[in-house]
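Objective 1b: paired records.
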Amino acid sequence: MTVEAPQKTPPIADENIPASDAVRAEWGRRVEAEYRSAAITHHLTLWLIQMAASPDLIHDGLRIVGDEMVHAEMSFAAFADAGGTAVPPLTRESLALPLNPKESLEMAVTRYGVEVFCLGETVAVPLFKVLREGCVVKSAREALDRVLRDEVRHREFGWTLLSYLVELPCEAEVRALVKAELPAMFARLRRNYAPVGGEARSEIPEADRAWGLMPIARYGELLERCLERDYRPRFEKLGFDLDTAWDDACRVHPTIGAS
């Protein structure tokens, strides 16, 4: 077994590092993503309240809403330092979770809890860790420091939530939904982090790394590593078959790890 040596984070740069258009675009996107995460988590937590779910889960969900707002504010500080002026307004429809009137709240919470937290927040931990390793611009590094620290707790919220859901009387329905939807969830994750042709985009300017960016190819590599290190043991511990879902996703979006 190979053990990776911990990466030493470089010190904050003394000199001014120019920001490219790619840097401004990425930090603008992060502002939007963090703000949207706050809204979506707030909506999910409302459903937990309506379900009379565990108070611990509800408190954790509300705490995450606050975290995401701070992340958005800190990301905007980095965006502004990079020369950004205004982030495009978000559509209000993207700041809420749609609810199928034929579906129970428990099923809706399962659907979004798994995709947003078990999948999205779990892979976010290694992604932000690597983004932080090369970041030496003060405002960008401060944002990544805070995000990385919080993402670990957000990840655990997702898996605690799924553990709670499979203990409810509707366990069979929860398991059936995860089995049916997980392949499509994985396919969407692969499209986001391993776009077609992304494996060839393995280099970016050092100045962009200093602002907390990394090559597109690295996202795909980290997603595949997350499959074995995080997704597999966590899903299998709860009795879910990961291989079938991942293989189906590879057929839908065969850009990495297809075999």
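Objective 1b, second protein:
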Amino acid sequence: MKFSFINNPDIFIDNEISSISMGQKLFCTFTLHGDLDKTLDNITDKYTILYNKIFVLESPQSEELMCTYNIDTHNTNDVPLSHTILIHRKKESNTLYTINALNTLIKLLNNGVIDTKYPINWPEYRNSLILTNGDSIRKLETAIHSIINL
């Protein structure tokens, strides 16, 4: 059975972007296949997209597509689009993750202890999105569905 993120509101950003530390941020907006064009329009209407690219990812473990894009938080104070999370990327392994998921992963690997210097074996998480689900993690294998050049 595939997982639905849209129906799991606990993972989404629910405060103003201005409350997130300023600078460039990588967002991920989840959307259904049939809503992709509308979601892309909403993203480009709301934000100035850095690098003029939106990467649309798919995963066999999820019903939704994941639109990933960089924004400059200096140019907006709005509440993020619905179904959107703030993510980070480990370039060497193309791993996407939330900070909460990274902390949960470290706790699971390090006998319950969060240690910011704990070495993660990033190749084990190559081309994936790591999310947390309470005290566990969910690793979604990702592949490029499309790249939108703006």
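Strands lie at 24-31, 53-58, 65-72, 84-90, 95-97, 128-133, 136-141, 143-149. The mean pLDDT is 87.
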